[in-house]
Design goal:
This protein has about 300 residues and is α+β, with helices and mostly antiparallel strands. The protein folds into two domains: about 120 residues, START domain (Alpha-D-Glucose-1,6-Bisphosphate, Chain A, domain 4, 2-Layer Sandwich), CATH 3.30.530.20; about 150 residues, Multidrug-efflux Transporter 1 Regulator Bmrr, Chain A, CATH 3.20.80.10. Helices cover about 30% and strands about 35% of the residues. The protein has six helices and 13 strands. An eight-stranded antiparallel beta sheet has the order 6-11-13-12-8-9-7-10. It has a five-stranded antiparallel beta sheet with strand order 1-5-4-3-2.
Length: about 300
């Protein structure tokens, strides 16, 4: 009997020590989101910039784990976000929250009532959930499957930006690029294209070529910052994106998830073809872009 009592006491004391001093979080919030991990990752980073407090967020090695610091008064709260894909269009999000300087106090008080720390944590996560719900209403991604990137000869301008600045870089160069081509009598040959040449997913930075397909001729601007190349046809996974072009990268993540699910090796160098002029109004959900993610060749 004494052995049983000692064993129970050992488990109780061990559990208390783990809960009070070793457990990494003070409070956990879980919810399900009706979108894929990449969209959650990017929305979370943008939301971090808008919260009404001092905040900082960092991606922890992959798209699925992020650590955020939020300052509330004299307290710094750590939010550890974990994103788990469930289906093609749903994800589970777990948020482990701790207070840098008042963790022990929180752990003691939480079992005995609804503390201010818990209420603030729920309000903060609910604010993000609402932000995410509103964002997912504004775009649509439809996976088409395997197709070929169309071969085009393009005049282009190399651009380096953050992912969020991608559309701004396009708009900044569109009038100049097309204006120079038309003024020299060049013949346009299709819709504007973005060819990503380097994508740093950890830091959300991009190198891309913003291009206008043309018919190759002698009537091309020379001695400017406009360059020329051919995009060769290549097998790729294709999606149709509808929404503001600022967030067309959501389709990149959807294609990456599709590739992973179907054991397809891809190159993280998307190609986008844009059907609409953002300067012309219309409902953004009617804007269309074809998104390609190149499939790796067997010898690559």
């Amino acid at each position: 009997m004494k052995k049983v009592i000692y064993a129970v006491l050992f488990l109780v004391v061990g559990g208390l020590i783990w809960y009070l001093f070793l457990k990494p979080s003070d409070y956990i919030v879980r919810f399900q989101a009706s979108t894929f991990p990449g969209a959650i990752n990017q929305t979370l980073k943008l939301w971090d910039q808008s919260v009404e407090t001092v905040s900082n967020i960092e991606q922890q090695g992959d798209l699925y784990h992020l650590e955020q610091k939020l300052k509330f008064g004299d307290s710094i709260h750590h939010y550890h976000w974990s994103i788990e894909p469930l289906t093609d269009s749903t994800s589970k999000v777990t948020v482990r929250i701790s207070d840098e300087d008042h963790s022990l106090k929180n752990k003691i008080n939480i079992p005995f009532g609804d503390t201010n720390f818990e209420k603030r944590s729920r309000r903060t996560v609910l604010d993000f959930m609402e932000n995410l719900r509103e964002h997912t209403k504004k775009f649509k991604v439809t996976i088409v499957g395997e197709e070929e990137i169309p071969s085009k000869y393009i005049a282009y301008i190399p651009v380096k930006v953050t992912q969020f600045q991608k559309a701004g870089g396009m708009m900044k160069n569109f009038s100049y690029l097309t204006g120079e081509l038309i003024s020299r009598g060049a013949q346009l040959d299709g819709l504007p294209i973005v060819e990503v040449t380097k994508w740093d997913m950890q830091n959300d930075s991009l190198y891309y070529n913003f291009g206008q397909p043309i018919i190759r001729s002698e009537k091309l601007p020379i001695g400017t910052d406009i360059e020329y190349k051919r995009i060769f046809s290549k097998k790729a996974l294709k999606a149709i994106y509808n929404g503001n072009y600022i967030t067309s990268d959501r389709a990149w993540y959807a294609l990456m998830d599709y590739a992973k699910k179907n054991n397809i090796e891809v190159e993280n160098t998307p190609v986008e073809v844009f059907h609409n002029n953002p300067h012309v109004g219309a409902d953004e959900l009617n804007w269309k872009a074809e998104i390609y993610l190149p499939i790796k060749e067997p010898n690559e």
